[in-house]
Amino acid sequence: MSASETQGRVNGKVFKDEVHWVVEMLLGDCPRMGTLLPFQLLAKPPQRVEVIVADSQDPLTTYATSYHTPIMVGEVLEHLHLFPGALILDGTLGGGGHSEALLDAGARVIALDRDPEAHEVARVRLERFGDRFRSIRANYSEAPRVLAELGIDRVDGMLVDAGVSSHQLDDSSRGFSFREGGPLDMRMGPDGETLEELLSRLSHGELARILNKYGELKNAGRLAGVILDAWQEDKITDTASLASIVATVGSKPGRKQTINPATLVFQALRIALNDELSHLERAVEQVPEVVKVDGFAAFISFHSLEDRIVKQGFRELANNCVCPQGLPMCACGARSMVEIITRKPLRPSEREVELNPRARSALLRVAKVI
Ligand SMILES: C[S@@+](CC[C@H](N)C(=O)[O-])C[C@H]1O[C@@H](n2cnc3c(N)ncnc32)[C@H](O)[C@@H]1O
Fold first, then answer.
1. Which residue from 124, 165, 277, 300 has its CB within 8 A of the most atoms of ligand 1, so it is best to mutate?
2. Does the beta carbon of 140 sit less than 6 angstroms from any atom of ligand 1?
3. CA 243 to ligand 1 centroid distance, Å
4. Contact 329, 291 (CB under 8 A)
5. CA–CA separation, 235 vs 229, rounded Å?
6. Residue 42 scores a pLDDT above 50
7. How far is the CA of 96 from the centre of ligand 1 (A)?
8. Nearest of 104, 4, 98, 9 to residue 49 by alpha carbon
9. Which of 109, 111, 206, 317 has a Cα-to-Cα distance from 257 of 20 to 30 A?
C-alpha cells in the first residue's frame, strides 16, 4: 500500500496528502500492516482503532494517536533544552505523546496524571523505554511530594499541558461531552465529587459565580436559574439533557454569540469540579522547588484564565523584590527565582492548527530557573 492510495481522518479532518494520513482499520484486517509502521495500538480487539502513519521526521504527526494529539511538540522539545539522560517531569501524561517525544529525544521521564486511564494507555505505549519511563497517578500540584518520595531532589525540566485530553472529551462515558449523552460525572480521575453531586448541592449564587468566573458567561445568573430549576424538576439526567437546557437560554439581543454556550457552561463546570485553576497556580508557584537551577519549565494552556495564571505566576517568581513601592531600598531580601523566556506566549503554527484544530487556542510559556 502506498501513501498516495490512502486518505484518512484526524479529529474529523480528511487528509489526502502523502505524509499525513491516517488509516482506519479493524485489528487483524490489514494484510500489509508491516508497511504501516510506526503506529500505536491503543485498543484491544475487536475495537476499531485509528492507525496514524507518520513522517518520522515530523513531530506534528509522529506522536498523534486517536487518544490525543500532543500540541507544539517541536517547541516543547526545543525550549526544554534536553540533553541525553535529562530527567523531565511530565505533569500531564494524557495519551503519552509528549512523554514519548521526550523519551525519543533521549530524556528520562517521570509522568503524572490524575486519570488512571491515561496511565494504562501510556504504559503500553511507552513500555519499550524500560526504566527511562515511570508513570505515577498523582496531581501535578503534588510534584514536590512525589519527587521527595522517589528520593529525587529536583528535575532538569518540567512540562504541564493543562486541561483535558481529546479522549476525555470524546469518550461520552466520562461525562465531558455535551454532544453525546453521558453520565453527569466530569471528573478527571475517580476521586472527588461528580457533576451530579455538585449540581445537587450548589445554590443559585454559587452556580452563577462558577459560570461567570470560569466560563466568563455574561448571562450566568439567568443560566444558573434555568439549570437549577431543570435540576429540581429532574429534567437533567445526562450531559445531553444539560446541554439542551442550556440551549434554551438565548444570548442577550444584539450580542453576537460566537461560542456555543454549552461549550462555556461545560468548561466552567469542569474547571470548578476538578479545581483546575488552583492546581495550576500551585504548580507554577512550585517551579523552583521542582526544577533545578538552569532547568526549564514549560506550560501549555488553552484559555485566558489558565494563561493568566501562568503569566502572573512566572512574573511573581521573576520579580526580585516584593517590597512596597517607595521604600528607599529593598528590605525583603527576595531574589528572582526564574527568568521568563517567553515574554509573549508561543502559539502553534498555522500548519499545526490545520492538522489539529484543537491546537488553535494553545499558548506555551517557558521559564528558566535561576
Ligand atoms: C491535554 S492532556 C495532556 C496530553 C499529553 N500531553 C499528551 O501528549 O497526550 C491533559 C492531561 O492532564 C491531566 N490533568 C489535568 N489536570 C491535572 C492535574 N492537576 N494533575 C495531574 N493530571 C492532570 C488530564 O487527566 C489529562 O490526561
1. 165
2. yes
3. 24
4. no
5. 9
6. no
7. 9
8. 9
9. 206
179 pLDDT band (50/70/90 cuts)?
confident
Domain residue limits, the chain = 3-53, 73-166+277-369, 178-274
Q: How far is the CA of 228 from the centre of ligand 1 (A)?
A: 30
- CA dihedral angle for residue 209, residue 215, residue 219, residue 225, rounded to 10 degrees: -50
From the CA of 73, give the closest atom in ligand 1. Answer: 8
Ligand 1: centre distance to CA 292 (Å): 23
State the pLDDT at residue 97.
Answer: 98
Residue 13 has pLDDT above 50, yes or no: no
Report the run of H or E that residue 158 belongs to, with start and end: strand 155-161
Asked whether the beta carbons of 337 and 288 are under 8 A apart, the reply is yes
**Hey, do 73-166+277-369 and 178-274 end up sharing a CATH topology, with the first three levels equal?**
no
Nearest CA to ligand 1 atom 8: 97
Q: Enter the DSSP assignment of 190.
A: S
Helix (H, G, I), strand (E, B) or coil at 166: helix
Give the architecture-level CATH label for domain 73-166+277-369. Answer: 3-Layer(aba) Sandwich (3.40)
Given a cut of 90, whether residue 324 has pLDDT beyond it is no
Q: For 178-274, which CATH class?
A: mainly alpha
Lowest mean pLDDT across 252-256, 270-274, 290-294: 252-256
